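Q: What residues go here?
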């Protein structure tokens, strides 16, 4: 059984500049993304025809690509994202994944020279990570034995295709009966969850790890901004497990899940429960900005206008 047994998959995927039927979408087995995890990706959400924080995601993609020395035109990606959502009728609520790899190699070698990048974009109906019942209880976290890689090895700031250590951590969490894993960095400081950043609240004060092993999450940045707007104190700090265990509230943030209440970490329950006042206020504020023009780009701004000809 998989999570997706009754899943009605959207019909089109974007591969290298055009839409193709999902069943025919293919990438070479010699693609560096497949062979070596050599590439990067972004995940975005669309709500009521508006893409959330598109420019921030494209900017992070630009930085990841530059760090990997992959040359790809992000204007093409911008349009491809809108086309995938539109062609699949996913404008109401969708999750989009855009992947750029170094490209297909003529031989099974890691040599990166001369390859033409591969780009794949797919859109899926947004499936909320947490259903309403689970939300009331909050998700459970288990601290993983495996550590989050930091800049001394594979820099977590590059949103690369190599997700081995979050996946190993997720396996640990699943085997322990928890919903999600919490990863420490190699110094023993709290870094992040497998695909989410973490916040803790003590006495109304909000903190998120300053660890350089955490991804610079777009949702985390939005939540920090919303906290400031709501007059809440928020800072980045070196956090240890004791800070998490002693928190009044703990929540995760990600594009796919938004603001996700945490009900227990290694069996310890936050004092104010999973949806304490700070988490609730930030979750509500986040849900409001999902369609706010100051935080979003309309699909109609990116798609070619029907019937309108360019002046020659
Ligand atoms: N950390 C990791 C490792 C992730 O993969 C993600 C999801 N992209 C996040 C944090 C959350 O980042 P964002 O808010 O940009 O989705």
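A:
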């Amino acid at each position: 059984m998989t999570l997706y047994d009754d899943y009605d998959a959207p019909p089109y995927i974007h591969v290298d500049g055009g839409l193709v039927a999902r069943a025919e979408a293919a990438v070479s087995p010699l693609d560096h993304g497949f062979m070596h995890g050599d590439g990067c990706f972004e995940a975005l959400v669309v709500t009521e025809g508006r893409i959330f924080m598109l420019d921030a995601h494209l900017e992070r993609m630009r930085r990841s690509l530059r760090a990997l020395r992959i040359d790809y035109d992000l204007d093409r990606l911008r349009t491809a994202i809108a086309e995938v959502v539109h062609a699949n009728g996913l404008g109401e609520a969708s999750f989009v994944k855009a992947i750029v790899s170094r490209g297909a190699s003529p031989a099974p070698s890691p040599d990166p020279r001369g390859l033409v990048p591969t780009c794949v974009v797919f859109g899926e109906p947004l499936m909320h990570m947490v259903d309403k019942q689970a939300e009331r209880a909050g998700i459970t976290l288990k601290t993983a034995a495996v550590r989050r890689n930091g800049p001394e090895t594979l820099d977590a700031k590059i949103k690369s295709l190599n997700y081995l250590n979050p996946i190993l951590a997720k396996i640990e969490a699943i085997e322990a009966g928890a919903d999600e894993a919490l990863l420490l960095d190699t110094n023993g400081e709290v870094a992040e969850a497998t695909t989410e950043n973490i916040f803790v609240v003590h006495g109304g004060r909000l903190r998120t790890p300053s660890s350089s092993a955490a991804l610079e999450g777009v949702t985390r940045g939005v939540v920090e901004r919303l906290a400031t707007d709501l007059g809440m104190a928020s800072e980045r700090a070196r956090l240890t497990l004791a800070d998490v265990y002693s928190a009044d509230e703990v929540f995760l943030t990600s594009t796919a899940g938004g603001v996700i209440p945490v009900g227990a970490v290694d069996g310890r329950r936050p004092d104010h429960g999973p949806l304490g006042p700070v988490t609730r206020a930030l979750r509500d504020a986040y849900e409001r900005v999902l369609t706010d023009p100051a935080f979003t780009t309309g699909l109609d701004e990116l798609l070619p206008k029907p019937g309108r000809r360019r002046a020659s």
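A: Context that may help when evaluating the design: The chain has a mean pLDDT of 94. The chain is about 30% helix and 25% strand.
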